Design the sequence.
């Protein structure tokens, strides 16, 4: 797999997008305004709610229970800081876009408009490289 810093090259980005994709048999679940908040997938004899990153939210059960789980989960959880594993190190990032093929994140620059934006793409379903960031206990040093 190429190093993360090489993801800016178009052929590498396309390769990463092709590797990840929400399976076609997962049913999108939308809230009343039409916004997709997750997916329901068949799992054995039941149905499992999956978040927008393609991760399970609960065990498989009845269809209605899966929908209720997704309705309660909403999409507000995306707007938190995340940690992304890049070349063996954790980088604090913010999610800027989620599609059925990818999660696009940017370096969390804490609103500093003088820094250059750095972006990474993570394939969906997400496999554990992206996880919630711990709280900040002190202001980060400027490089």
Sequence:
């Amino acid at each position: 797999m190429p190093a993360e810093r090489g993801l800016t090259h178009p052929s590498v980005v396309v390769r990463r997008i092709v590797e990840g994709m929400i399976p076609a048999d997962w049913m999108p679940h939308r809230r009343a305004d039409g916004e997709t908040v997750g997916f329901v997938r068949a799992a054995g004899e039941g149905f499992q709610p999956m978040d927008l990153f393609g991760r399970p939210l609960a065990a498989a059960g009845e269809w209605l229970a899966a929908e209720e789980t997704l309705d309660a989960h909403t999409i507000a959880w995306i707007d938190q800081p995340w940690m992304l594993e890049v070349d063996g190190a954790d980088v604090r990032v913010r999610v800027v876009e989620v599609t059925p093929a990818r999660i696009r994140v940017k370096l969390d620059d804490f609103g500093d408009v003088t820094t250059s934006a750095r972006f990474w793409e993570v394939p969906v379903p997400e496999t554990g490289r992206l996880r919630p960031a711990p709280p900040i206990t002190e202001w980060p040093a400027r490089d």
